[in-house]
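ok trying again, last paste got cut off:
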Amino acid sequence: MQLAGTACAICKQNVLFDSDATWCARCSSIIHRECLTQASNICPFCQQSYEAPENKFVFSRICPECFHPTSPPEPQCMRCVARTRWDTQAAYDSFVDHMKDTSRVCALRGFAELAGALLCFIALLSVSLIANRPPFLPLGLFLLGFMTLTADGIISIGRRRKIARFR
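nice, full thing came through this time. structure:
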C-alpha cells in the first residue's frame, strides 16, 4: 500500500516516507507509527486495538512475471523484482483471477495465430499448385506468414500454460 503523501488518520499530517507510517489491517486507515504509539495502539477509525498489516500479507509461491519459485516469501522476486506480496487475501484472489483471464486471452491468441498459419499454408499450397510458374513475392509472404504465425501461436499457448499455473 502506498503510504507516502497520504494524511495520517490521527494528526492529519502527510506521511513523508513509507517507513514512517503503517495502516490498520482492519479498516485500512493510515497512521504515523509515532502517532499510533501515542494513541496506545488504538486505531482512531475502527476504535479497536491496532492490527499490523504484516499479519494479513499474502505471498505467491511463484513470481507472476518470470515464474521462478519464491521461497522463502519475499515482497519482490529476487530475479526480476516483480511484486510477489499482496496486502490482503482479497487483493491476491483478485490478482489470481486477473492471471486466469490473461491465460484465456493467451490461449485465444495462440489458437487464432495457428488458424492464421493454417490459412497461410493453404494459400501457399494453392498458389504453388494453381500457377505454372508461381510468383516469388506471394509465395515468400505466405511462407513467412506461416512460419511467423506458427511460432507465435505456439509461444502464446506455452505462455498460457505457465500463467494458468500461477498460485
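cool. The chain has a mean pLDDT of 88. The CA atoms of residues 100 and 165 lie 9 Å apart.
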